[in-house]
Specification:
Length: 323
């Protein structure tokens, strides 16, 4: 066995035959690539739009990756819808099922299979080529779209209307796929944080908006072990949010402050007073997943906060960073 492709559905498998929408099997997609793929095995893990996946589904994908390596795979490709691809890739990165055993490459498409110029076939071809040849173990889980390789902590989907929808801003991609199918190294990669063993139950995510009422945050924090609050700029939140955030931290919740824009902040004086952990460059969605992982892998809030901070993204203020 060489490469295992785990199929979860998505736009890449969607086909309109003129009368109705069909779902094309990933095995058919691989067969359509031509010769040279007889060593590629396919595992059907789920089906449907990735916007329907929950965190348990994402953990299950990571388990499929681990199983593929246990059965002798030297590389794994995950075919996934693009809406939540970066999130399932990040969960897989956190759980680290590959553990240095081989590359894990997520891919999909922005255009359906029946589009006159589908992007899926080339993305799948590039992902398989990368799974066969990539040996840069420090890169962790990769996302391969439009011939560009991103590492899971950095990557984000920035457009719903372009085939060039993913980037790693403000970082550089970790590599590119050449027309020959060979992959070349690019930018740097994040250091590995403390190990993760499991994800805890749901952690609410509240996105602040002008005029938000304190009761919105208070309700979200009730009965929760953790809370992610998405604010503005360098982790600034409205005055109305200060009280409930401080109270949640004092009650022992893991409170994470994220921002709708990039900021690498993990600590500052305001958070020392208020109580909370900065998202450290992660988006609010990824910060929520990391908070669940921190709570699921540690015995108390302070240990969870330490684990969370260990996964902060490296960055130098005022410079475009390559990691």
């Amino acid at each position: 066995m060489s490469v295992v492709v785990i199929a979860t559905g998505g736009t890449i498998t969607s086909h309109f035959d003129g009368g109705e929408w069909l779902s094309i099997s990933v095995r058919q997609l691989i067969d359509e690539l031509g010769d040279g793929y007889s060593d590629v095995d396919v595992v059907d893990a789920a089906a449907g739009p990735s916007s329907n996946l929950n965190v348990d589904d994402m953990v299950a994908v990571a388990a499929h990756v681990s199983s593929a390596f246990d059965r002798g795979a030297t590389g794994v490709v995950v075919v996934h819808g693009t809406d939540t691809m970066e999130l399932t890739a990040y969960v897989t990165h956190l759980l680290d099922p590959a553990a240095g055993r081989g590359p894990v490459v997520f891919t999909g498409s922005m255009r359906v299979h029946s589009h006159p110029q589908p992007d899926g076939p080339q993305n799948l071809r590039d992902a398989i080529a990368t799974a066969r040849s990539w040996r840069r173990a420090t890169s962790g889980v990769l996302v391969c779209m439009e011939g560009v390789l991103h590492t899971a902590p950095f990557v984000g989907k920035r457009s719903a209307a372009s085939v060039d929808a993913f980037d790693s801003f403000p970082y550089e991609p970790v590599g590119r796929v050449l027309p020959s199918g060979n992959s070349i190294d690019g930018g740097g990669v994040p250091p590995r944080g403390l190990p993760v063993s499991a994800l805890a139950d749901e952690v609410p995510l509240i996105s602040c908006y002008p005029g938000i009422d304190a009761a919105v945050i208070e309700r979200a924090a009730t009965g929760a072990r953790g809370l992610v609050v998405e604010g503005f700029g360098d982790l600034n939140i409205p005055n109305a949010a200060w009280g409930p955030v401080h109270e949640a931290w004092q009650r022992g919740l893991l409170v994470v402050l994220a921002s709708r824009v990039f900021t690498p902040t993990s600590r500052n004086e305001a958070m020392e007073f208020l109580g909370g952990v900065g998202a450290g460059g992660l988006t609010a969605q990824k910060a929520r997943l990391l908070a669940m992982a921190a709570l699921g892998s540690t015995a108390d809030r302070d240990a969870a906060a330490a684990l969370f901070r260990s996964h902060a993204l490296p960055h130098h203020h005022g410079e475009r960073s390559s990691g």
